[in-house]
């Protein structure tokens, strides 16, 4: 039997994982460096009694940590997703899947398994699916429900990645009518909707629009971590597309810093995930102090996932220990306590937020 040649979508997914692992795709400037939690020298609690659990969309998670949407859509990603899902299941945290477009549009069992493996590996974990806003506009509700059913998803993320699309040589740059498409699935889909950026942040104004149409959660995915513009610049160079390469490099550090985006979004929505350059449990603690419910990481889990679920579990446990320590030295016995802990905002983030607030 002749093997089916890989599709453009599959090749793109494979390119993304390879580039993230092999090239410089990191930016700086999350703003967390400007967030100083106030030390509590007399915490009056036992470290072991600290409760890191949190309720998210009617599910209890052991810790406010998300394995952010990364991959799927190519057979090479199956084992990565298996390791990530097993780790999420065993540690009791949430996991997002990469875009399911390939699973919906390609008739291939190998591609489908790269998605379905997550529920097989983690039958009880909180798993959320993923579709792009541009695709959501094109799909009828039945097709979107297929994405949910594919992995027995607990929620569906709708990703906003228009800068990435603008840099891609083959990108979809029609950004019209996406808010209406989001509203349609919010009203009729069988599971909650999370709207997430992909590394450039969400402003307060956009968060307000999303809140008004009823989205259940917002994932800010701000500037300061993996740059998808930079990733697409590498792909454009390989595809001999010099204009797209230049644009990708020019916009490599474009976006709203994660700390600032988190601050703006929590003013508009009560269920916010902070991601984008989150690298430690202390970063997670700072995000929660700013008002987020949880922090999400993607790239830091990728290399451990290539070594199997045990390596991912160890990374998660490190993050939880770091978070617990931050809670201990701020006197925060629970996540709600941490959301109300004192902090000092300094530097560029303070200036950014002040200018944004004064302009309203």
From TrEMBL:
One of the GO biological process terms: isoprenoid biosynthetic process
Name the cofactor(s): NADPH; Mg(2+); FMN
A Pfam family cross-referenced in the UniProt record is FMN_dh
Give the highest taxon in the source lineage: Archaea
SUPFAM superfamilies attached to this UniProt entry: FMN-linked oxidoreductases
GO terms (molecular function) for this protein are:
FMN binding; isopentenyl-diphosphate delta-isomerase activity; magnesium ion binding; NADPH binding; oxidoreductase activity
Annotated FMN-dependent dehydrogenase domain ranges read 26-100, 178-341
Q: Does the keyword DNA-binding apply?
A: no
Query: Which residues take part in binding substrate?
Result: 12-13, 99-101, 164
Detail which positions bind FMN. 69-71, 99, 130, 196, 226, 277-279, 298-299
Print the keywords alphabetically. Cytoplasm, Flavoprotein, FMN, Isomerase, Isoprene biosynthesis, Magnesium, Metal-binding, NADP, Plasmid
InterPro entries per the UniProt record, alphabetical = Aldolase_TIM, FMN-dep_DH, IPdP_isomerase
Q: Which residues form a coiled coil?
A: none
Q: Does the keyword NAD apply?
A: no
Concerning its family, UniProt says: Belongs to the IPP isomerase type 2 family.
Q: How does it assemble?
A: Homooctamer. Dimer of tetramers.
Check the record and name the NCBIfam families matching this protein: IPP_isom_2
Name of the protein in its database record: Isopentenyl-diphosphate delta-isomerase
What is the scientific name of the source organism?
Answer: Haloterrigena turkmenica (strain ATCC 51198 / DSM 5511 / JCM 9101 / NCIMB 13204 / VKM B-1734 / 4k)
